[in-house]
Amino acid sequence: MSGFAYRVQGGKAERVEIKQALASEADLIWVHLTTNNEHAQAWLTDEAKAPDYIVDALTATETRPRCDALGEGAFLNMRGRSSEETTSSDPLASVRIWATAGRVISVTRRALIAVDDVVEAIEGGEIRDPGDLIAEFATAITANLDPDVADLGDTLDDCEADLDADKVFELRRHVTKVRVAAIGYRRFLAPQRAALEKLAALPCAWLQDDDRLHLNAAADRAARMAEELESIRERAALMHEALTDLRAEQIDSRALIISIAAMIFLPLTFLTGLYGMNVKGLPYAEEPWAFDAITAVCTVISVVIVIYFVRRHWFGR
User: Fold this and answer.
1) Is the CB of residue 78 less than 8 Å from the CB of residue 97?
2) pLDDT tens figures, 8-51
3) Which of 66, 188, 200, 295 could form a disulfide with 212 if both were Cys (CB 3.0 to 4.6 A apart)?
4) Can you give the three-state secondary structure of 29-97, one letter per residue?
């Protein structure tokens, strides 16, 4: 089983073995497990003495952000950016946290970027108790997500500024990618805001006033990102419709040109086909000037049709 543990006493953090962590007495014991196998369940049950419903919550495969009060403790599930490759349907990695007075156990199945930020903060002496640790997790997760959300908006701005009929397929591909990402992120950010707000309101003695302020700030930031993602999703839908209309106009314009060309050549094809028949009795077929006359007639017909279309403003539509 992979992971690590920290012991914090008097603001000083010390990295310890996972097996020794729970036997220590300190202001904060943090055990972080990075696993998706049965060893985590065995350790949580046998060593951490966690209840079965806590073990199931910490090791569940499919999770959504939520917060549950459990006596003097709390279970929190959050989603954040991962350093591993993700899918469009599940773009964020989860961290499951069980916190009680003096103890925090967190579990991730995929590498979470925010974990490195929390480790840096705890080694820098910025984390002293469970409330500080959870507040740092919430702050780091939202701070890591904010640039990605901003990039989605910037990408959509570039697509709107570069709207061109000749780039319809390329722009549609970018817009679709942005829309899928926005939907995937928003699916988790909306409940994450509710989870953080619920945790900040819990009457836990190990949550200090400054911890609640940081949790509410992270919840507000998550709410702002969720609103921005909703705006991006709607803008992407409108952009997709605009690209579809632009493509339809392009097709109509090309179809109009083809129709005009067909109408110009239709009478010419009739005349050339008529005089191309190998039958007797065609007028002036034996005259030496017949070819020049037919050519002139075809030219006059073409010019007349073109002038008609120009005066009707069919060209350039």
Assistant:
1) yes
2) 888 788 888 887 777 778 888 999 988 766 677 777 888 777 88
3) 200
4) EEEEEECCCHHHHHHHHHCCCCCHHHHHHHHCCCCCCEEEEECCEEEEEEEECECCCCCCCCCCEEEEE
Read off the pLDDT of residues 145-162 as tens digits, 9 standing for 90 and up: 989 899 988 988 888 787
Residue with tokens 């910025």, as numbered in its chain: 126
CA nearest neighbour of 45 among 61, 59, 63: 59
Residues 6+ apart with CB under 8 A from 20: 5
Cα gap 214→252, rounded to integer Å: 56
Q: For the sheet containing 73-80, what is the strand order?
A: 12-16, 3-9, 28-34, 103-108, 93-100, 73-80, 66-70
How many residues belong to the chain? Answer: 317
**pTM for the full predicted model:** 0.75
Residue that the structure tokens 């490759």 belong to: 85
CA angle 45, 47, 52 (to 5 degrees): 15
Q: How many CB atoms lie within 10 A of CB 68?
A: 17
Amino acid residing at 247: R
Per-residue pLDDT reduced to its tens digit, 176-231: 888 888 888 888 988 999 999 999 999 888 889 999 999 999 999 999 999 999 99
Nearest Cα neighbor of 51 from 27, 25, 75 is 75
- Tell which residue, 21, 48, 41, 51, has the closest CA to residue 109: 41
Closest CA to 195 of 215, 225, 181: 215
